[in-house]
Amino acid sequence: MRYLGVFFLIILVGCGAIDPKTQPTYFSGTIVNPTSNYVTLHREEALIDTAYLDQNGRFSMRLEGLEEGLYHFDHPPEYNYVYLQKGDSIHIRINTVSFDESLVFSGRGSELNNFILEMFLTNERESYSIEKNYVLDPEPFHQLIETIRADKLTMLSDLQREVTLSERAVSMVAANIDYNLYVHKEKYPFFHENSPQVKDFPAAFFDYRKNIERNNRDLSHFKPYFQFMKFHLGNMAYEACTDQCGIIPTPEKPLHFNLHKLNIIDSLVEDRLLKDQLMRQLALQYWVKSQDTEARIT
User: Fold this and answer.
1) What per-residue confidence (pLDDT) applies to 13?
2) What kind of fold does domain 19-108 have according to CATH?
3) Where are the domains of the chain?
4) Which residues contact 104 (CB under 8 A, 6 or more apart)?
5) pTM score, whole prediction
6) Each residue of 57-71: pLDDT tens digit?
7) Are the CB atoms for 105 and 117 separated by under 8 Å?
8) Cα–Cα dist 270/241, whole Å
9) SS3 of 24, please?
């Protein structure tokens, strides 16, 4: 009778009688060559769950009432991301000898996560080749970035035809594509004749700034978004300094420039978590540079 009940449940799920979104979320995995005896799951700065590895390097988490979104899992000293929705049943396999490159997702919800992972690995590979093209003039560099972006958005559209994705998931993946590429447009001016003056570039070069989400809580702990925000707000601080003070910021006056950065962060970033992260990073960066300057003087 017990097995008949299980069989009946499987039939209900298979026929769509049970909505996966009403079910618990399962996150499990196998760690080959583990470097610690546990795995933790986090949402932003909050610890969601901890699971300990068994003798075969396996772990499992059952998560009730999970909010859809981007999480990160840690197996010290490494970490990576996983996008979770209610009813997902995701299994990962990792060999710590090559943590990111060996990561594979399987189970319900794996298609989206494997796509995000592939985008991450592709971004790592192509970042160096994009930086080598900083020597291009603004217009061809702009076209290079837009071509790469169009190709990746086409890949996302292909995924949407194969798998049903929530609006929130599509938005997150599109943001991943955009911010990984647009950070190069924020870096580019500083490598182009050492002049980040916006007026020296075609108007379309910075069109993407009109659609920047400076308070996206879903992405506050997502490395590509945070990296973009650092460079973007730094550029805005540079422009504010040159416009308001009539000087070009130099390494010899880091405090002056950092005050502009603090004002920009405080005025444009409303999300408290993201604002705190950006300000902590700025303070740490200033402290490290000041220590380095003192060491050179002495």
Assistant:
1) 53
2) Immunoglobulin-like (2.60.40)
3) 19-108, 110-211, 215-290
4) 92, 93, 94, 114
5) 0.81
6) 999 999 998 999 999
7) yes
8) 22
9) coil
